Amino acid sequence: MLSLNGINVFYGKVHILKNISLKVKEGEIASVVGANGAGKSTLLNTVSRILSVKSGTIRFFDKEINGYPPHRVVGLGIIHVPERRRLFGSLTVVENLKLGAYLPEAKQRRRETLEYVFRLFPILEARKKQLAGTLSGGEQQMLAIGRGLMSLSRLLMLDEPSLGLAPLVVQQMFEIVREINLSGVTILLIEQNARKALSLSHSGFVIENGTITIEGKGEDLIHNEYTRKAFLGA
């Protein structure tokens, strides 16, 4: 579904992503784990075309999308839910959700998708007239994911969805991610909670200093001696 081949990305003169190659299969959950500053968020920003590629190719199915602007990437169904939610706090829950459905096809199916999001997150329906900025952290994360789903996502890229959430809410969040995947949405997950992420994932990648150093099945990475010591606290 998604293929990166030899991707190099710079911030000014600083080389951030170094010859990154990875593949995400349709229908799976793929996790990228690594320390802060390793390049995880940069990877998602590159796929969503917020950042430019110096060299290498990004393909989504049969399309090379290196030169696509972000809105065209969204039109393909590649949806990026950024770190720290980035909601419109002065707008209501339902207004934030509707903003996710701004492309023509998504707008045509907005009512149907909104019903799906409310089934997935009943608390959002109960809070639909409440200002987004007044929600709890967990509710805001649900809203951010719901807004992404409103864009008719085929590949949902989640950046640190458990960041700053209480342990009980973290567990709920990962259950929701699994449910979204079971509904047919492919997921590329960036997550500091490496054990949770890898246990949920079909495939996993370890990124260190902008380079993919280990890849394999999520379960295999949990039992990998280096991964356990470096990222799982074992």
How much helicity do the residues have? Answer: 25-40%
CATH names the topology of the domain at 1-77 and 197-234 as Rossmann fold
The overall pLDDT, averaged over residues, is: 93
**Coarse morphology:** globular
Number of helical runs? 11
| Cα-atom radius of gyration | 17 Å
Number of strands: 10
Low-confidence stretches: none
Q: What is the CATH domain class of the domain at 1-77 and 197-234?
A: Alpha Beta
Strand order of the largest sheet: 6-7-8-3-9-10
The major pleated sheet works out as: 6 strands, mixed
Strand/helix succession: EEEHEEHEHHHHHEHEHEEHH
Question: What's the name of the CATH homologous superfamily of the domain at 1-77 and 197-234?
Answer: P-loop containing nucleotide triphosphate hydrolases
Distance between the termini: 33 Å
Category from helices, strands and their pairing? alpha/beta
What percentage of the residues does DSSP assign to strands (E)?
Answer: 25-35%
Q: What is the CATH architecture descriptor of the domain at 1-77 and 197-234?
A: 3-Layer(aba) Sandwich
What tags apply to this protein structure?
234 residues, alpha/beta, Rossmann fold, 6-stranded mixed sheet, 4-stranded antiparallel sheet, 10 strands, 39% helix, globular
Describe the 3D structure:
The chain has helices at residues 40-47, 70-76, 93-99, 104-108, 110-120, 122-126, 137-149, 167-182, 194-200, 218-223, 225-231; strands at residues 2-11, 14-24, 29-33, 55-60, 63-64, 78-81, 155-159, 186-190, 203-208, 211-217. The chain is globular and about 45 Å long. The chain is built from 11 helices and 10 strands. Strand 9 (203-208) and strand 10 form a beta hairpin. Helix 3 runs parallel beside helix 7. A 6-stranded mixed beta sheet has the order 6-7-8-3-9-10, with helices on both faces. It is α/β, with parallel strands linked by helices and 234 residues long.
